[in-house]
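FORM 12-B: Structure-to-Sequence Request
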């Protein structure tokens, strides 16, 4: 199914590139309607601008029309600034007129937190989708086509911005046209578009981001969001962004509710929403940042710096202290400053004539502000292991011109760490105008460069490996699910849960469910001692705590004793529990315990969890999370992210475990999660035992909870 239609993209195009625009609720006072009209009129030589308000004949020097219907044409976009209860009626009139798109500035909808306003917002969205008159908002501040200087916004800062390759999409209008715009202007960072989406009754972040992926003027998409209404749209945007080579740089705020189910299984308790976003962003190549400045600086860096041809950095400064701190910060985030070759070291020392020190980082003292500085930089940037160079200084225009000239002649990236006043005009102004990425602190510079390297490494690998794909569900899988759903209860017993995962190719420990002590003895003899006995019940979820498990049962006499004991303990622990029987299970002794689980996040959907086994997973929360489905490579990444998983590769004389079988199982469980979305609530395989190399894995316990 195509997630975006041509008509939807055409509506967004009219919003962002209007030839005609009307402000419904325009006013001569510089309130929302007046500010919108004033901003729009600054583009009146290129855009036909109309005012609509029956109380005025003229506003700001142009005719004021009594209604949309009275306009001489159907505008490409309208800005709606009327009381909330008039918005739907206004949209209906706009549709009858043939208006192309709408920006609803009006507030008073779902943000009020009451049902009737949420319902009214839902009506706006439903009307927009049914009629084809697509809307941004409500409760937004509008948008700006910065590259063409068309400002369809009620912001008091309308028509104030620099042109550049960054498309900003922000749920908060006050944030988009406030700190982001102000800081961008201060830092010389330019936008292609600024888009505020507000309450997103219709079009949301992903819709505008999808449009910007096709926009040739946009190289990086910067986002500020609280959450996503449709995970599949966000993930599809991320995939397309990887294909197009347009990085997504985002601030994500807010948390989704996991609800009461967190108490039912280990997986749900360990899957934190924000932790999941962190992992999914990394999985899909989204660069996550934490502040206004970081979003702008990193987006600017990615827009104006080529992919590093080598992983190494070269750092040069007029100060040994500054260069050392910069190198230290880069080292802390895992970046490398390779030693200079003898040729570069001798060449730089020949320039320095006994002053400073030729190294990486390099302290070149006053030569950073001399005619010899280009020669020093040239030695460093041409080092074979260097892909990006950092200049940490605060020189005058001449130094800036030298850096700009080197950037223009080199195919490697140059980044500037400005060590002087941000209010300085000499030097800094030229760097900004030339789009040299500028940072103001060594730690933010280091994090930015880490993002630059990580993004390009991720994209190169992802384009080779592709994204995870889910095979078609088999008939046997469908039949198994139907049979288990036919039991009429959401929580499955252990044996039933194992039947479910076995249908998706997860190996399970050999076991027999019995209903009598004699049958238990027979089963134990067939399986071979020692064995495990457990109560099989959908109502006793944590069997060890309930005392209904016996390990290492050695003979028939012990089987008979254990059988009676665990049934008695079950009766005391949960007198009304449904007992499906007693499981007699092979005793698996030579495996390493891990946990594998599935939950469904309200925003991001099917989530796979992998963690170290035993109680340590809860003590240290030693887990990795991924959005399903995953690839084999992503499964290996999950193992690498879990500290306790290091024992899988052999530890203190213990043989290496069957890691390949484990990664295959993780992929299979991710397919199960995709197939059962909407039918499965959560799944725990805890523990899954990873056997020595070549012997596979075995699930020795499982808990599945179906949706009612």
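FORM 12-B RESPONSE
SEQUENCE OUT:
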């Amino acid at each position: 199914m195509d997630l975006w239609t041509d008509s939807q993209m055409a509506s967004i195009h009219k919003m962002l590139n209007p030839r005609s625009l009307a402000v419904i609720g325009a006013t001569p006072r510089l309130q929302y309607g007046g500010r919108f009209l004033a901003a729009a009129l600054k583009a009146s030589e290129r855009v036909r601008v109309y005012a609509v308000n029956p109380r005025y004949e003229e506003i700001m020097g142009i005719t004021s029309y009594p209604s949309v219907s009275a306009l001489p044409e159907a505008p490409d976009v309208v800005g709606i600034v009327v009381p909330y209860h008039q918005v739907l009626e206004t949209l209906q009139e706009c549709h009858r007129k043939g208006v192309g798109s709408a920006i609803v500035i009006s507030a008073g909808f779902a943000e009020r937190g009451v049902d009737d306003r949420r319902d009214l917002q839902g009506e706006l969205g439903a009307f927009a989708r049914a009629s084809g008159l697509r809307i941004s908002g409500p409760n937004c501040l509008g948008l700006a086509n910065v590259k063409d200087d068309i400002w369809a916004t009620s912001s008091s800062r309308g028509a104030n911005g620099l042109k550049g390759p960054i498309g900003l999409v922000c749920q908060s209008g006050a944030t988009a046209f406030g700190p982001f715009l102000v800081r961008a202007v201060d830092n010389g960072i330019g936008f292609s578009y600024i888009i505020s989406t507000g309450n997103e009754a219709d079009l949301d972040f992903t819709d505008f981001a999808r449009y910007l992926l096709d926009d040739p003027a946009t190289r990086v998409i910067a986002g500020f969001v609280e959450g996503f209404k449709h995970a599949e749209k966000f993930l599809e945007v991320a995939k397309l962004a990887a294909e197009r080579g347009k990085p997504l740089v985002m601030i994500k705020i807010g948390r989704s509710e996991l609800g009461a189910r967190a108490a039912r299984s280990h997986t749900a308790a360990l899957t934190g929403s924000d932790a999941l976003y962190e992992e999914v962003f990394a999985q899909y190549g989204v660069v996550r940042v934490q502040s206004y400045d970081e979003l702008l600086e990193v987006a600017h860096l990615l827009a104006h710096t080529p992919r590093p041809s080598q992983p190494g950095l070269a750092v040069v400064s007029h100060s040994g202290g500054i260069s050392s701190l910069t190198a230290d910060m880069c080292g802390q985030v895992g970046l490398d400053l390779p030693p200079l070759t003898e040729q570069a070291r001798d060449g730089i020392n020949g320039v320095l004539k006994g002053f400073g020190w030729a190294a990486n980082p390099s302290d070149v003292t006053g030569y950073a502000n001399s005619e010899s500085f280009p020669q020093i930089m040239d030695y460093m940037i041409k080092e074979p292991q260097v892909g990006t160079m950092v200049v940490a200084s605060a020189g005058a225009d001449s130094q800036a011109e030298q850096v700009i000239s080197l950037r223009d002649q080199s195919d490697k990236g140059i980044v500037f760490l400005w060590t002087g006043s941000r209010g300085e005009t000499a030097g800094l102004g030229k760097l900004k105008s030339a789009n040299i990425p500028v940072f103001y602190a060594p730690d933010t510079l280091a994090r930015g460069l880490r993002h630059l390297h990580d993004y390009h490494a991720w994209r190169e690998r992802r384009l080779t490996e592709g994204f995870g794909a889910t095979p078609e569900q088999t008939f046997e899988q469908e039949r198994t699910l139907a049979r288990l759903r036919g039991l009429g209860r959401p929580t499955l017993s252990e044996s039933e849960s194992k039947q479910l995962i076995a249908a998706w190719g997860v190996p399970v420990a050999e076991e027999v469910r019995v209903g009598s002590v004699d049958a238990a003895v027979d089963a134990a003899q067939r399986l071979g001692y020692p064995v495990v006995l457990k109560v099989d019940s959908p109502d006793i979820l944590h069997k060890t705590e309930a005392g209904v498990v016996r390990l290492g049962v050695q003979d028939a006499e012990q089987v008979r004793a254990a059988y009676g004991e665990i049934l008695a303990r079950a009766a005391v622990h949960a007198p009304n529990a449904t007992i499906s029987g007693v499981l007699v299970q092979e005793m698996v002794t030579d495996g390493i315990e891990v946990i594998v689980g599935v939950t469904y996040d309200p925003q991001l959907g099917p989530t796979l969890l992998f963690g170290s086994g035993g109680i340590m997973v809860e003590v240290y929360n030693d887990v990795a999370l991924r959005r399903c489905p995953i690839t084999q490579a992503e499964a290996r990444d999950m193992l690498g992210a879990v500290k306790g998983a290091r024992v899988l590769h052999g530890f203190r004389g213990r043989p290496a475990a069957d890691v390949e079988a484990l990664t295959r199982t993780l992929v299979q469980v991710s397919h199960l999660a995709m197939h059962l979305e909407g039918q499965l609530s959560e799944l725990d395989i805890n523990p899954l035992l990873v056997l020595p190399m070549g012997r596979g894995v075995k699930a020795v316990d499982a808990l599945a909870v179906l949706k009612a």
